[in-house]
Amino acid sequence: QLNAIARDPADPANTWYVATDVGVMMTADAGATWTNATRPLGLPNVEVDDLKIAAGTGYLYAATFGRGIWRIKLTGSGAYNIVDLDQSFDRSSQAFALNHSMQIAGTISTTAPAWRGQFWKDSKDPTTWKTWATLPGGTFSYGLAINGKGTCVGYADTSAGVNHAVIWFPGEGRVRDLEEEDANRISLAFGINDANIIVGQRFNNPFVHLPDGTGFWNIGTFGGAAGAATGINNASEPEIVGYAETATGNAHAFRHQGTDLLTPADDLGTLGGNVSKATAINDPGQIVGYSTLPSGATHAFRTTPKKAIDAKTDDLGSLGGDSFATAISDTGLVVGKSYDASGNLHAFIWDQNHGMQDLNNLIPANSGWTLVEARGICDCGCIVGFGRFNNKTHAFLLSL
Fold this sequence. Notes:
This protein is mainly β.
């Protein structure tokens, strides 16, 4: 049922918000297409009886049934504010992760040109960034993950051209090489929790790196040649996720605890196809990633805590083509990337009420951005990733 309509003063001919019994719908093209804007606006999933936009303020007021009156700051015709994390027009940047303090890890191209790890201390002020150094004699570094303390991990090359897992602390001006045992061994760090336990890939196998001085622990595969640990949470006994190949060479997602070798009980299965990979886990224990279907298509998934992949309940769908989940908040919101029916790669957000939504439909119209991949999300709903802006790849931050 339609209860009220509010036209955006910034674009009254095209941008309308409609109050319904199940939330708020929004159109940016005079009703040709509609988007469920309830979650992006930060509203509860309840009946909305009235809507008003206060002229000159940019605020939308929503009167809900049983949950009071809500005030939401609008940004053009989109539900999210978008911040370009790289104010330079002559280089490229990517954001890969953020923590609950809104600190961000990523990478940025330098004039060399070479990529350098990047740390944004305050996402509200993109100028508060710090660029990582490289390893002695190396040419690049990548920041891929960040914990709640602002400590980052990733990888960098050595003077011999070998990639090594590295850790970077906000108070230091250098990266530390985690690879102390074998200078010729390739290692990559993909995740870190608040206890500074690091996970990644070393010599094509998943590893756990402990901060107690015992270093790397190879946790093996399901009988195959390769795998990687991609995420770790802050549970009392941390849960590690990733993927490992079986004896037939198919990668399967896993959930694991400790430093012992993987067992068949760690195998999360698939969405019905042959391959699955886990990319992230939240503190409650929900895991996201992607898996092939019996048809051969690839879809993003989200599991129930402590459960294997269930093809009936865990398939998150897509925007029209293959989809890949990359991150999950502790509240269960999922972000990632998906191809649409035309073959364009777009960033998405997924939640239980609205399913998968193209983030490009939730930012201000005519922003100049094409959001390609969302890589991190925190509990407040803020999202980081990268997209195309002014014909360059730029890191972005989305906030409500």
